[in-house]
Amino acid sequence: MMIMFKTIQKSLTAMQNPKMRVALFGTMGFGIFLLTIAGLAIPAEAKTTRIKDIVNFESVRDNQLIGYGLVVGLNGTGDSLNNSPFTEQSLLAMLERLGVNVRGQNLNTGNVAAVMVTATLPPFTSQGSRIDVNISSLGDASNLQGGTLLVTPLMAADGEVYAVAQGSVNVSGYAAGGQAAQVTQNIPTAARIPGGAIIEREIAFKLEDLKQVRLALRNPDFTTSRRIAQAINGYTSSNVALAENSANVVIKRPDLYAGTIVDLITDIEQLPVEPDQIARVVIDERSGVIVMGSDVKISTVAIAQANLTVRITETPQVSQPNPFAEQGETVVVPRTDLTVNNNPDSKLAVVETGVTLEELVTGLNRLGVPPRDVITILQAIKAAGALQAEITTM
User: Fold this and answer.
1) DSSP 3-state assignment of 152?
2) Where are the beta strands (DSSP E) in 169-288?
3) Spans of all domains in the chain
4) Which residue, among 175, 196, 195, has the nearest Cα to 115 in the 3D structure?
5) Cα–Cα distance measured from residue 210 to residue 252, given in angstroms and rounded to the nearest whole number
6) How far apart, in whole angstroms, are the C-alpha atoms of residue 145 and residue 78?
7) Which of 51, 247, 333, 367 is deepest in the core (most CB within 10 A)?
8) 3-state helix, strand and coil shares in percent for the chain, rounded to the nearest 5
9) How far, in Å, CA of 327 to CA of 321, rounded?
């Protein structure tokens, strides 16, 4: 297939939506979802976003908790004794703490399952509050339906216990079957307990004691960092914010500020800022997905693309002797039809400077270029140094 970029430029003149174009194209079972946002035609106020949506405030963060426990009360769907020895050891240790000595006895752990319990401790959570916990089977249990999690301490990375979990588990799936068939929906070996953990220890952190606050950009960029600092300084009418680098902005507490540090953060996070980003093209070759921004540009480059199709057709034929023949045998004779289709008329086409990647890909789509060829063309343009953007392959 020959790509004629003059036809592309003619087809592009019919496009009437300069603000946003979403093109969905795919052939031969592949799909390309192309999302482009054109920045020149959108009003400035439509491109701004709140500071709280693009930054994280230092020390205002979640903490991960983890624990090891036992789920009891299962209907024979727990861990087996042979494949999960740690379940038996945990059961023995728990019974001994409760004053029951069963050392040397044969235990059936079919109603018990060893599990890992995980939870997220939100910032500034007070003692006595409840948080949700997730439960995942550790052994060869087949179903946690109907089980109860026993008291399980949840520790953080420092080894300290911050919460204790216990309660009836909620399983979103099920498993049922017999000797000839089995039906499983979702994951019956994973469960959840809403509000299943009680906070026992608070994280020693006082936001009011901070003399300065550091903002961490979720998508680091020098331009965005500077714009955030300028917006904060403009709001406070003083130089309290400093862009340290592309990822951090430091805010010093104003001396004459009448409110608390919480008031300052609340006022700052509502300020509108226009975020910036580098020109980037994201490609997923496995699914044929392309996502690109509006700032992607293409320098002058010549492109030619030709499809080479090789078709092989196998038609086996059976050869056998005539009826009542004294000699001969039946054999299968292969018949192969080989066809090679190449387009010898492919020519180089020149793409002038200033053509956006959006225009190029839209034109290729209108000409019916397969998604795999589009990805190959983009990578070839980048290799030639004509694609003024960063390509990220997923």
Assistant:
1) strand
2) 174-177, 182-185, 190-199, 212-217, 241-243, 248-252, 272-273, 280-284
3) 5-45+279-316+342-393, 49-59+206-273, 63-199
4) 196
5) 9
6) 10
7) 51
8) 20, 35, 45
9) 8
Contact yes or no for 394/284 (Cβ under 8 A): yes
CB 182 within 8 A of CB 175: yes
CA distances (Å), origin 3, targets 46, 163, 252, 302: 36, 63, 57, 11
Instruction: State the distance between the two ends of the chain, measured CA to CA, in whole angstroms.
Output: 28
Cα–Cα distance list, 288 to 21, 112, 317, 370 (Å): 18, 46, 39, 10
According to DSSP, residue 125 is labeled P
Q: Is 52 helix (H, G, I), strand (E, B) or coil?
A: helix
Closest by CA position to 47, among listed 255, 241, 223: 223
> Is the domain defined by 49-59+206-273 classed in CATH 3.90.1150?
yes
Amino acid at the residue 60? V
Report DSSP state, residue 17: -
- List the chain pLDDT tens, one digit each, 394 residues: 333 344 434 443 443 343 333 333 333 333 333 333 333 333 444 478 999 999 998 878 889 999 999 999 998 888 987 778 888 888 888 988 888 888 777 777 789 999 999 999 998 888 999 999 999 999 888 889 889 999 999 999 999 999 999 999 998 876 666 666 667 777 889 999 999 999 999 887 777 777 788 899 999 999 999 999 999 999 888 888 999 999 999 998 877 777 778 888 888 889 999 998 888 888 887 777 777 777 777 777 776 666 544 455 657 777 777 777 777 777 777 776 656 555 555 554 555 666 666 677 776 676 667 777 778 878 887 888 878 888 888 7
> Closest Cα to residue 294, out of 312, 274, 280, 310?
280
Q: Is 375 exposed, middle or buried (0-12, 13-18, 19+ CB in 10 A)?
A: buried
**Encoded amino acid at 324, one letter:** F
Cα 227 from chain centre: 28
| Strand pairing class (130-137; 112-121) | antiparallel
Using the 8-state DSSP alphabet, how is residue 126 labeled? P
